[in-house]
Amino acid sequence: MRGQATRARTVLAPVLLGLFALALWQVLVVAFDIKPFIVPGPIAIGSEFGANLSTVVQGALVTGGNALVGLVIGGIGGILFAVIAALVKAVDGLSAGVVSAVAVVPIVALAPVLYAMYGANAETARQLVAAIAVFIPVYVNTLRGLRQVRPVHRDLMHAYAASAWQTTRTVTIPGALPFIFTGLRIASSLAVISALIAEYFGGPIGGLGKSITSAASSSNYNLAWAYVLGAILVGLVFYCVTLAIEMFVTRHHRPTS
pTM of this prediction? Predict the structure, then answer.
């Protein structure tokens, strides 16, 4: 019962805080007569969101699809590259500078280049932008987790004459799971943000980024914020699904006493 009460408080507290923030936002908009081009009220945004739900969902599927492809590609690439770097010291040393350089590549400069390479009618550029954004936190967190293995565990596997890959598969990777999922949780939001931003700089018509730009350029600010709300919901879905997978995996890999 105590555990259930704790979980209920954990869920209820942020919900109540969010409702309070929305109510305060609406009161301030009305009290100070804030114009929609500055920021519309939650009620206006919600009304526009409901009136254009099918369009928002269609854009969310495009943006979410590109973010998902980028999350899968970048996540797998980051984990594999971190495992190789942990096994081969030379790769670890040589990759530090490359990873640091990739981490500071601005999306606003990268997206147009990728559109020129793969064509403005393909979603490839948006997916690659998301994959690059995902790769960095997954790689850094995974590599840090792989380095956390206790020396006694390594010595035990060495005493068993286990190979480097056997040690990595049975001891190192399971021990690094919390770090891996920390990177994936961070990357899940970055994937959505990166795919969204990449839509501002060209590519096919579709996606929430294009919709926000189109609505704002026509001074329909309530609709633009409705698309922003759609993007927020997509990001929350990605984060919550990643968190649920983490809880499922860590629960099944929890050591028994």
Answer: 0.85
